[in-house]
Design a protein that fits this description.
mainly alpha; Growth Hormone, Chain: A
């Protein structure tokens, strides 16, 4: 094996993908993507209104808005594995709290712990680790690792529905919190590394010199692109930010989907949980497809596919009824690709339009704007469901997706013209 391959294609490169996948499976897949099952159960067991149950997500996302920029600072200065490990434990603790707290304020305490945890996992994990370790096949590797959020969601949503239906919310929450920590924590503690330099390696696909004695040029010294200060003075940044706001807002329908299936269409909690799992199965396929579309055709194709899938899904939801579960299953599956745009599309769009120079800083602020959209969407969706009904939410979300796609294409086109100059 030649020197370049020894440094750019090792077990540590692939272990990062496995570790990211395991943490996403055990934390984001198990906890984040089964939360909609628990919030639907809040309504059934505790008598919450739809607006109160959706406020859970708003508080979670407001917490993420506050902590995502902090995560960027802490992650750059402190032990990376410690940050991820603490985040895994906080998510498990938040779920465990639901086993003892039954009041509205008590449940919202869990949402705060979730928000702190997800700020670190969503920001510091796939979008940074995979981008650092893979100079090529970045989109595909992000898609594979991130898809395990959907794999976890597909499995754990059904498990959560069955446990809630048979044992009640409190016992279900305790059991699943323990499982989450057992799956995720070992990988966070022992496998994750922030960058290949931590193991004296180079990124996969990195074009390096064959002479071992020559020092590698650090990415920060050679990277092209904009600084954060430069980016905020360009129209591309603000066009991208508005587009992400709209996509994150529309995709937040995922959090109310189980409640929609149960309250509007009249399905039981077990059947509604299966529908939530269909979203997660669609998320798995969607993330893989989005990553492959990016590597083969570019970011535009990634967004065209994701937005088209979301709009078709909303059309199927709008025309569904309690007697057409298969139609809702298909719509849920397609919606998964739209939902995947948040985790796959955002880092790819930032990299494409603003470069690598201060990618991490720019990404953290774009993600923060997206989280603001998530926070507002949860509150607005809950209120609209109680006052105007679910159809109004879906029509609004469809319009947002169309406008967002136009903005994404515009941002990429402007960035491309500037790059040629």
């Amino acid at each position: 094996m030649d020197y370049a391959k020894q440094k750019t294609n090792t077990k540590w490169h692939w272990m990062q993908v496995v570790a990211c996948a395991a943490i996403m499976f055990g934390t984001m897949g198990l906890i984040a993507n089964s939360t909609s099952v628990f919030t639907a159960q809040f309504v059934a067991e505790y008598g919450f209104t739809t607006a109160q149950s959706q406020l859970f997500f708003s508080i979670q996302n407001i917490t993420m808005v506050i902590f995502t920029p902090i995560a960027q600072i802490i992650g750059s200065k402190m032990n990376y594995r410690a940050c991820i490990s603490i985040a895994v434990v906080l998510a498990g603790a938040g779920l465990a709290l639901l086993s003892v707290l039954t009041s509205v304020p008590g449940c919202y305490l869990s949402s705060i712990l979730y928000g702190i945890s997800y700020s670190f996992i969503c920001y510091l994990l796939i979008s940074i680790v995979i981008a650092n370790w893979f100079a090529k096949k970045t989109g595909t590797m992000m898609g594979i690792a991130s898809a395990f959020t959907g794999v976890g969601g597909a499995i754990w949503s059904i498990v959560a529905g069955q446990l809630c239906g048979n044992l009640g919310l409190q016992k279900a929450a305790l059991i699943m919190s323990v499982i989450s920590i057992i799956i995720s924590l070992p990988f966070a503690l022992f496998v994750i590394r922030q960058r290949p330099e931590d193991k004296n390696l180079l990124p996969y696909g990195y074009e390096s010199t064959p002479e071992p004695s020559k020092k590698r040029t650090e990415p920060s010294e050679k990277a092209n692109g904009l600084t954060l200060k430069q980016a905020v003075h360009t129209p591309v940044f603000w066009i991208a930010v508005i587009a992400m706001f709209l996509i994150y807002f529309a995709a937040q329908f995922q959090t109310i989907f189980t409640t929609y299936a149960k309250q509007e269409l009249g399905f039981g909690i077990q059947v509604s949980a299966v529908m939530a799992s269909m979203v997660m199965i669609g998320l798995i396929v969607g993330k893989l497809l989005l990553g492959m579309f990016n590597d083969k055709f570019g970011v535009k194709a990634t967004y065209i596919y994701g937005v088209a899938a979301g709009i078709i899904a909303f059309i199927l939801f709008l025309t569904a009824s309690g007697s057409t579960p298969v139609q809702v299953y298909i719509g849920a599956f397609l919606f998964g690709s739209c939902f995947a745009l948040m985790s796959i599309g955002t880092p790819l769009l930032v990299s494409q339009t603003m470069g690598a120079k201060e990618y991490a800083k720019i990404l953290s602020w774009v993600l923060t704007v997206g989280l603001v959209a998530n926070s507002l969407a949860s509150a607005v969706n809950g209120l609209m469901a109680d006052v105007l009904g679910y159809n109004a939410i879906m029509i609004m979300a469809s319009i947002m997706l169309i406008v967002a796609l136009f903005l994404v294409i515009t941002a990429i086109s402007i960035a491309g013209r500037k790059a040629k100059k």
